[in-house]
Amino acid sequence: MSRAASRATPARRPTVRRAPPKKSLGDRLVAALPVSEATLRRAVTWSILGLGGAAALATASWFGVPAAIGTAMADATGELGLKVEGVDITGIKRMNRETVYAVALEDQPSAMLRVDLTTVRERLLAYGWIKDAYVSRRLPDRLLIHVVEREPAAVWQNGGQLTLIDATGVPLEPVDRNRMPDLPLVIGPGADRQEAAYQRLLAAAPALKPRVKAATWVGNRRWDLTFDSGETLALPQEGAAAALVKFAELDGARALLGKGWLRFDMRDPAKLVARKPGTDMEHSVPDAGTGEGASAAPARFARIDEV
Fold first, then answer.
1. Looking at residue 39, what DSSP letter applies?
2. Per-residue pLDDT, 169
3. Which residues form the POTRA domain (predicted)?
4. Can you point out the beta strands (E) in 167-304?
5. DSSP β-bridge partners for residue 138
6. pTM for the complete prediction?
7. Are residues 190 and 218 in contact, defined by beta-carbon separation less than 8 angstroms?
């Protein structure tokens, strides 16, 4: 009889299916982002590098570490990916974008943390067209520049040169004679520095303002205005606005402009002197708004002496 050992087959344990682990809130938020996880990791790495580099530079400066060491640290962050790869420029209306780019980044290093934002802004503000500028970093690799442009107000003619200027007289750029903008023309040395006062002068007589095509700053003390009909009006050194208002009233009452007169002179507040080409004529014209029986003295016209 064989000795066969019979062993009982062990009973199988029931299979228990475990539920998948629940995702944390952070995991769900990451999954909802419109970027891949790899991209997100790179962004986090760049941000940590940027913050760490900035903190290292600040610490080095605080404890008096030589500037060369701080520069080397900034260069090291550049090798790790914090380099200027692009510049976003906003606010441009009339300027050339490439000009702004060249002015801003001239002689600036490629390492992001070594770009001197203050120097970039000061360099931009030294450029005529730019009234204000804002410069910042967007880590890891972009500079943000927003500029506020000046508004052209007039064309300044001096020594045969034409220059576009703003309302404060800041030169903006040369003007081509064949492509003159539709702006007032101010003529003479120092006329650019009088642009703000000139605009206030024209504002005193809004009815005449659109008819003034040029203004000459004479002797660094007073204005000669030239109208679209060809006449010139010599204004006094003192009380120029009041004289221009007076002339506007006379022109409104008697239509002086476009009547063949060559030049009007109001340098003497007591009279208005005028000249026609090749003639000596004297006329009396009542003041604007003077009715019958009014005692106001008439404005006298006579031949003018040249300035």
1. H
2. 92
3. 82-150
4. 171-174, 185-187, 212-218, 222-227, 232-234, 263-265, 273-275, 283-285, 299-301
5. 142
6. 0.63
7. no
